[in-house]
Amino acid sequence: MNIEKISLRSYRNYESLELDFSPKLNVFLGENAQGKTNLLESIYVLSLARSHRSNNEKEMIQWHQEFARIEGKVKKRNGLLDLTMIISSKGKKTKVNGLEQSKLSHYVGNLNVILFAPEDLSLVKGAPQNRRKFLDMEIGQINPQYLHHLSIYQNVLKQRNQYLKKLAFSSNKDLVYLDVLSEQLANAGGFVLFHRLKFLKKLEVWANNIHQKITYGKENLTINYKSQLELGDEMDETQLFELLHTELKNTVEKDLKHLTTSIGPHRDDLLFFVNEKNVQNFGSQGQQRTTALSVKLAEIELINEEIGEYPVLLLDDVLSELDDDRQVHLMEFIENKLQTFLTTTSLAHLENKLSITPRIFNISEGIVEGNSD
Question: Which GO terms describe its biological process (predicted)?
Fold first, then answer.
């Protein structure tokens, strides 16, 4: 798939903008704080109906404007799609081919994107919530029902934690409603766990293949799902529900003591091993970055495997964070395979690394020039 054109209205520092893109490599070139990442972000928002930079959606609306609009024409294997995202103080409105979507889960997945930014290089070393977010965003793109069940899980989790606090200060310890919430949480959590494990098994295969190529066969990469639950290799959704429900009941006293739900997908993590050594704790920075690069590139192949076409790749100033060897592997991987958008302050990183001519957009103070091959 690829984005043929995009138009912005009142989006961050862009009052009005319309651009046509190359189906191969597009470069947003300019100094920092000129609007490169804003433009890249608009593509991400058009795809996932949320920003990767901020949870405050009002920040995306230009000052003194009531709403921001992003429109894109997407070429897919089965034809063209017109996508529209409108952001206002009242919330978000999404349209596909002019038809308003009643749920975000009906909208997400029409345009698949993979974002690779400098902070993704800390995927391995960073906090567990970053790895959970990584799983949730990527699975949600290929399985909209996952986002639906994840939303239910998060809502019930919030209710359960609130009720735990209420019980702690009540003389009437009515645990019946708590068990109702635990059952609802386990039901949604079983779905989340099942699809996380299924996704991770496929991701590991792709990531290891790519990791071996980058390291010239010297390193093997494995990824483990870390949970407080005793997870079996081939557990189905029902078994995961029953396991989680049982453990939620077993930890009631602990949860009442700490006023929070101590077990479930919201507490889980990923572990990365290179040649059976935990790379998070004992790997070099080079190994950690190679692992992160392998995982991000594996996402691309996995999405292609799942939906039958490659996603759009967004590279936000990431080349400057990679050494020459990893830059070469990245650029060789994407060439002639998928549409790519790259932000950079200099073209030096691309010299002698490309066999294709990129479409270059020069950006300065929200003004874009170079809308041609």
Answer: DNA replication; DNA synthesis involved in DNA repair; double-strand break repair; SOS response
Say whether 36 counts as a known binding-site residue: yes
Q: State pLDDT tens for residues 77-95.
A: 889 999 999 999 888 999 9
The answer to whether the annotation marks 30 as part of a ligand binding site is: yes
pTM of the model: 0.86
Mind listing the pLDDT tens digit for each residue in 324-348?
A: 888 888 888 887 789 999 999 888 7
Was 13 annotated as part of a binding site? no
The answer on whether 207 is annotated among ligand-binding residues is no
Query: Does the annotation place 32 within a ligand binding site?
Result: yes
Distance CA 242, CA 235 (A): 11
Q: How many CB atoms lie within 10 A of CB 180?
A: 14
> Is residue 119 annotated as involved in ligand binding?
no
Distance CA(366)–CA(317), nearest Å, equals 17
Tell me if 343 is assigned to a ligand binding site.
Answer: no
Residue type, 76: K
The annotation status of 186 as a binding-site residue, yes or no, is no
Q: Is the dihedral of CA 244, 145, 112, 84 positive or negative?
A: negative
